[in-house]
Task: structure prediction
Amino acid sequence: MKRISVFRLLLVLGCMALFLTGCSRDPNVRKQKYYESGQRFSTKGRYREAVIQYRNATEVDPSFGDAHYQLSQTYLKLQDWQHAYLELLRTLELQPDNYKAHLDVANLLIADGQVKAAQEHTDLLMNKLPNDPDTHVTVANLYGKEGKYDLALAETQKAIALGPDRGNSYLNLALIQTQLNQFDAAEVNYKKAIALKATGANPHLALAAFYQARGRYPEAEQQVQLVIQAEPGDSNARASMAKLYMAQGKRTEAEAFLTQVKRDMPENSDAYRMLGDFYFAVGDLDKAVAEYASLHNDHPKDVQVSKNYVQLLIVKNRVDEANKLNEEVLKSKPKDDEALTYRGEIQLAQGKVNDAVQTLQSVVSSDPGNAVAHFQLGNALNQRAELEQAAKEWHEAARLKPQMVEAQRALAGYALQKGDMAGLEQAAAQIISLQPGLPDGYALRALSFRLRGQAAAAEQDARKATEVAPQSAAGYLQMGNLRTQQQKFSEAESWFKQALSRDPNSADSLLGLVNGYLLMKQPDKAITAANTQIALSPNNSAFYDLLGSVQETRKDYGAAQTSLKKAVELNKNNTDAYAKLCHVQAVSGSVDEAIATANNAVRDNPKEASFYILLGSLYENKHDLEKAKSAYQSALQLRRDDPTASNNLAYVLLETGGNADLALQLAQTARRALPGSSNVADTLGWAFYQKGVYQSAIDLFQEAVKLAAKNKEPDNPLYHYHLGLAYAKADQPALARQHLERVLKLDPKYSDADDVRKQLAQLKS
Result:
């Protein structure tokens, strides 16, 4: 055999290496490898790993429609509806005739309540695939969402007629019959779906949920066990079993079961995270943190473990640790929207409100379907006192994720703050639908009814709150408030005492009891009640705050100061107690002491804009306008466009010869937010006066006088002084004289009385 020269052999091997390298760099080969890897992970139930591989495939080739579709299916299995929806939309951009994608989009839109948008897809499907059973199942879902159950049944029966051997149709029929309380027929059809091997959802788990809802726990457990045996790599059945234990109140069994799941499935992220998530769900945060610390140590490259650990650290206020770990995640995945959302939440916890807003706005811009980012953005905007924008973000979060009870609670708080009782009722109803076994929603709805004078409805909900949670103070508190409103003070007293017996630290319950005694003109009883509760809970700052408030109403300023100082000592973040302490010191004539207290409040709460506003007001009282100006500017750095800070800074600028244009702008900002404030109208009028726009100034000073009367405020000599000056400048001496004389009549010792007399002397007869 002829020997091949070394040179030629090296040349051949070199060519082979080049060929092999070329193949590995071929994007078509790379994307296919990622795609096939995703399929293998998905088959094994390792959906998060599958997501990574399908994503890799779409990054190699963004127009790889099959990968986008399979990615959407994997997200659906993970119940990540928003990302599934976005991937389905991308699929349809690339494959407009992918009718399975149309079906999935329609069903997601139906679940989200977007019936009109869903109908565009169902109309297309009815036109293109009128004989496909899945088309009729989807139309049935649409009718079901609209409450048209007869039509939904008819469409499902059409689907069965078109495909009598398809389990999915029977499963859909069973679900509709469950909604109609046709339980016997539903059970038969769940079993048919199982026999025919329905694939749209696991029919065994659907039947298990059906049994669980009926309290037939052994049968439910049997169905879940069948899935576990048949699909040992699927973590969903394990999650269902844990929920089944919890439904029966078997918390110990659930914990032991999930501990075993962690041992049995050490490579499945969804499985080994269940125990930590369980601790978080039941409120055992210490165990949740410890579990996730262990998971992070065992699986340092599992990004989901890291992110969940970050979330727990934030909840436990271990912000520095959370920030360090989260930045490590972002170093490896700089565009991870979940980690970016945590960055915004951490910035908010650090008091970096503007940074948080910027971060979270970038997240919702790149990922508009991120409900958590919208919710946190709402929280950040709320910190900046941009309440309307905050509410829009909370509404969007609730729309994107209807089960997000935190968004509904935020909306309830917003509605209460705005006095929107219909909005409060709506939010409360949503909370009830999400958490019917908790008292909060009923208590909030009772509050909305009570404040609208609907006593019977309020009582019904308040009593329901006591029924579902007899050991919670919430329902008893609302009953006490209702009886107080009805002036049935003896009954109210009993309800408030019952609330306090269930929650000895309930400041709202003690407040109701104390207010009741004050309304009955029994301040001694109010003080005794506060002291009694303090004896039971001696470290409750709010109780000393209440005691100080009662003492202040009795003008016992020395005792009030002692109580309020104790409240602040126990909780330096008790902003109410700090503010009241400043007020008591100021009215006692100790303005310097009040300023010192306000400075302490700023030191202890450097991100609380209200304390800078309070400090500015105290400096104004001392006529130290430069320090007042600095304080108001600090407030506006923390809470942009705050109307009180804007108004006060505008006035100080005008009084010190500052920038009149800036003062006008600030005054207009305050006016937009507080159109019913006489003080704000006067400030804006004063800004126009300084700018020489006298008629506008006159209009606003007149309105300030009218608003003061409307708001039942004392007739303010300052408004008449300003109005008199403006009339003088507008060459209306008679009206100028009328208002300037009114100043001296209201307060002969008015601070600018000399100037008033001077102006009167200069007026023409």
Remarks:
- Residues 649-765 form a domain with the Serine Threonine Protein Phosphatase 5, Tetratricopeptide repeat fold (CATH 1.25.40.10).
- The radius of gyration is 34 Å.
- Residues 210 and 220 are 8 Å apart (CA to CA).
- Confidence is low (pLDDT under 50) at residues 1-23.
